[in-house]
Write a structure and sequence with these properties.
Number of strands: 0
Shape: elongated
Structural class: mainly alpha
Largest sheet: none
Order of helices and strands: HHHHHHH
Low-confidence stretches: 4-9
Helix content: 55-70%
Number of helices: 7
Strand content: under 5%
Radius of gyration: 26 Å
């Protein structure tokens, strides 16, 4: 760099390190390397736990838990790792109309597609829950979307 031989740069960096405190530089670098990955892993784990809890609350129809988890920044459109479904899918599949309403009011994606392109409207239609179907349609669910079986939402 700048016409200085390579061995001179390392010699120069050693002098600079000693002048400003090599121990200080080493302490800062080791602290940064130690804390940064762990903090991000902890945050990622915390987010996964929140998302899993939100999915379970939607399965059970636990309105208070859904609200609390969303307030703590659980991902409203998180997919579970088993069935590739979101909280809205599970609330629709289980007929929890109040949960559907809250999820949609809090910006859950009405036309989100899970495994085999199944939407929450497909699931609500499959159980014949008219109230859930109406809520989904009122929030923009597309009844023309087809799943892998080429079934329309309202023809199931």
């Amino acid at each position: 760099v700048f016409g200085i031989p390579r061995y001179s740069i390392s010699w120069l960096s050693n002098i600079v390190a000693h002048l400003i405190g090599f121990d200080l530089i080493e302490a800062i670098l080791s602290k940064h390397q130690r804390e940064t990955p762990m903090a991000s892993n902890q945050e990622r784990y915390r987010q996964q736990q929140l998302n899993h809890a939100l999915i379970e609350a939607a399965k059970q129809g636990s309105l208070a838990d859904i609200q609390s988890l969303l307030d703590r920044h659980a991902d409203i459109n998180a997919f579970d790792c088993y069935n590739s479904q979101t909280p809205l899918h599970y609330a629709s599949q289980n007929g929890h109309h109040q949960c559907i309403e809250i999820l949609l009011d809090r910006q859950a994606e009405a036309n989100i597609q899970g495994y085999n392109n199944i939407t929450p409207l497909h699931l609500a239609s499959s159980i014949g829950n008219r109230q859930c179907i109406e809520i989904l349609l009122d929030h923009g669910a597309d009844k023309s979307l087809v799943n892998v079986r080429l079934s329309l939402s309202l023809s199931l």
